[in-house]
Write a structure and sequence with these properties.
By secondary structure, this protein is of the alpha+beta class. The protein is built from 16 helices and eleven strands. The strands form five sheets. A three-stranded antiparallel β-sheet has the order 3-4-5. A two-stranded antiparallel sheet has the order 1-6. A two-stranded antiparallel sheet has the order 2-7. The radius of gyration is 25 Å and the shape is globular.
């Protein structure tokens, strides 16, 4: 019998204070889940033991002598050497403890020695889920009408146990539902149900669906975003329910997210992105620029000065073209930017990057700058 593959929380998994920690060992966190929750499968790289946790507990000095008792005791709230710690969470393995007053990734790529604690704990991997399963108090089993469930979320509903972020932006909980079902055929049902709402008359349903496909561009039926762009325009804003007034999505952003993950792109999709970056009201996000750099690099390089708008935009273009390893396009873009006094500083900053020292575009562009 084939052993199911384990799935790992990115960057070692979260240690949290007030964020939830699921009980189901198959519940793996990912950045696309919309909000943070703690890893329940942490193991220690030192002692090799499993890491346990309990909310609203703390301890004073001298805890090391009690590590054995902690390991042997099921209910930590009965232990006299522990203290109430409202809003914190006590973690312990066989060799150390940690009281979390905030949240941090155990193997954070952006570890900050001033604020983060060096922890020897890492996610040990989560098994593929099986039905029935629970998330935020909602049970999903083989009889659950997932299309109806998606429709409820489109109207602003979230489960009673949803975090404040999921409640504030219900579309994020669609991502939570999709990632929770990952590895099961029901995940595809959810994605296809979301795609159906791209054609809704209700603007907020379309906005929520675009939000979903921006985060999950390779989900089934994600190509439907291109049909929406054809019908409504790639730059048309669609608002979605959110605690942030005016929150909206445009088809171009979801299209770009899809295009950066594929080596080939339909010409009409690329033309939609071209049009979007030239519209003043469209936020030129890095993903938009990366998609154009990959699929329409020559046009982006020639149009760099008009697309950039400001120094930040100029840098996005230069770095995106650099990452395609087409140095000649960096030169074309750089020459265009050098002609604009407001963008020259961005070009100088880019060329001053120590990692560019041996790149052939540097001397050419320095000469262009005079």
């Amino acid at each position: 019998m084939r052993v199911p593959e384990l799935r790992f929380c990115p960057e070692g998994g979260w240690v949290v204070a007030e964020n939830p920690v699921p009980t189901d060992p198959s519940d793996v966190w990912s950045s696309e889940a919309g909000d943070v929750f703690g890893c329940n499968r942490l193991v220690c790289g030192g002692c090799g033991g499993a890491v346990r946790q309990a909310p609203n507990l703390s301890h004073s000095r001298g805890i090391k002598k009690h590590l054995g008792t902690l390991a042997e005791t099921e209910d930590w709230s009965t232990l006299p050497f522990l203290e109430p710690g409202y809003g914190s969470r006590l973690y312990a393995c066989s060799c150390r403890t940690h009281v979390a007053h905030t949240r941090q990734l155990c193997d954070d790529d952006d570890f900050d020695s001033m604020t983060d604690v060096a922890l020897p704990w890492r996610c040990a991997g989560h098994p593929v889920p099986a039905l029935p399963l629970e998330l935020e108090g909602l049970t999903v089993d083989a009889s659950t009408d997932l299309e109806a469930l998606v429709a409820r979320v489109m109207d602003g509903w979230t489960p009673e146990g949803a975090t404040a972020l999921w409640r504030g932006i219900p579309a994020t909980w669609l991502g939570r539902l999709y990632t929770r079902l990952s590895g099961l055929p029901q995940a595809e049902v959810v994605a296809r149900a979301v795609a159906q709402h791209l054609g809704d008359a209700e603007e907020e349903h379309v906005g929520a669906a675009l939000f979903f496909f921006r985060w999950f561009p390779d989900a089934p039926d994600g190509e439907s975003v291109l049909d929406l762009a054809d019908a409504a325009g790639a730059s048309t804003p669609f608002h979605y329910p959110s605690w942030s007034e005016g929150a909206h999505e445009i088809p171009a952003h979801a299209l770009a997210a899809r295009l950066v993950q594929t080596p080939h792109a339909e010409r009409r999709a690329v033309l939609h992105l071209r049009g979007a970056v030239q519209e003043a009201e469209v936020e030129v996000e890095p993903t938009l620029i990366r998609a154009l750099a990959v699929h329409d690099g020559e046009w982006l390089a020639r149009s760099a000065a008009s697309v950039a708008r400001d120094a930040e935009g100029a840098l996005k273009i230069l770095y995106a073209l650099r990452d395609t390893e087409q140095d000649e396009l960096v030169v074309v873009a750089g020459v265009a930017l050098a002609e604009d006094p407001l963008l020259r500083e961005a070009l100088l900053s880019f060329l001053d990057n120590a990692f560019h020292r041996d790149r052939p575009f540097v001397p050419v562009l320095l000469q262009a700058l005079g």
